[in-house]
């Protein structure tokens, strides 16, 4: 088992890839009493066209299948729910589906071996029938309708529709009502067999565990199971244009205060993984310093009564494109849009702000090192984005230079921008 010390942190990462292709990463921490495990398949809502395992032909499936599978994975042969098995041992379990991965997780401080075995077993065995799939459709359709009634969800869905015109990430991950109704048992099995093979999955464990004992438990569990041979997964590619699909979207809902999402589409098609690791942190510097909670702009907007709370900043890597969203609420949405657009033209950062922000990042990394949930989730994110764990994060932050920031900001275009505006039902103008 490979051992790597996390620089400047009192932690060691243990890694091994099993014979069946499953990646195992263990981050023990004796300073805590609990354990947290995530079992990830690199399959998310964005993937709707692919070559199934054992086939040579590209197929297209309804949107929302990845999320539908997430729901059905918890089902047991006796009609029970795997979540109940964790609850009986005092542990909590859950799952989520993003555009590029589905993650199953549990946390607790007792019965770790039993809980880990349960996690492995229920995710690696699919129990579905025509009857329980049809029953699940009704549940998920209600969930989809509920999201459409939530202003925050509608704003996010509109954001993706505004930015993307070809990439299926533009569709709600849960799928539309028609998508959900169209899903078949055969399609669910096909997606499961293709994307839930151990070679497309990763198990990350953090907390008070013995790495050697834990790895042995995992190996013994996997030896009892039969999987087909490893196979490269072929996905459909999309010629997503660099321009926004729509410059603006305005819609109405029953809200009290207008909501705005100012969105930027950054072309990363010529970037490699090293480029991402070098450039994305500097972009974070710019947006956190200029639009973050402590920024001069936020204080100014509050003082002028344009906003009552801070702005939100979200950066999401969608493969070929990075999407940056700045969102907020304002009774004066036009003034807020103008203020954001004006600030976007000012990419300067003082040396004092730059060094102060570095210190904040470093202190956060050190402070968070005892948070087994955050450390685990960071490993999952880094493996999804960079296909490696950054064990030298603190050193990397210390190496950041203002001159390099200035160079990166000159190289990257932030001009492909637009906005989504959600207005109260009775209001028709900005």
Present the secondary structure layout:
Blueprint: E1 2-6, E2 11-17, E3 23-28, E4 35-41, E5 49-50, E6 59-60, H1 65-72, H2 82-88, E7 92-97, E8 102-108, H3 112-123, H4 130-148, H5 151-163, H6 177-182, H7 185-195, E9 201-207, H8 211-223, E10 248-253, E11 259-267, H9 273-291, H10 296-303, E12 312-317, E13 321-329, H11 333-344, H12 351-367, H13 372-386, H14 393-398, H15 402-411, E14 417-424
Parallel strand pairs: 3-9, 10-14
Antiparallel strand pairs: 1-2, 2-3, 4-8, 4-9, 5-6, 7-8, 11-13, 11-14, 12-13
Q: Given this structure, which CATH class of the largest domain is correct?
A: Alpha Beta
Largest sheet: 7 strands, mixed
Largest sheet strand order: 1-2-3-9-4-8-7
How many beta-strand runs? Answer: 14
The chain-level structural class is alpha+beta
What is the N-to-C order of secondary-structure elements (H for helix, E for strand)? Answer: EEEEEEHHEEHHHHHEHEEHHEEHHHHHE
CATH architecture of the largest domain: 2-Layer Sandwich
| Binned strand content | 15-25%
* Mean pLDDT reading: 94
CATH H-level homologous superfamily name of the largest domain: Metalloenzyme, LuxS/M16 peptidase-like
- The CATH topology of the largest domain turns out to be Cytochrome Bc1 Complex, Chain A, domain 1
The low-pLDDT segments are none
Total of helices: 15
Rg result: 23 Å
Gross morphology? globular
Compute the number of structural domains: 2
Distance between the termini: 59 Å
Q: What portion of residues is helical?
A: 40-55%
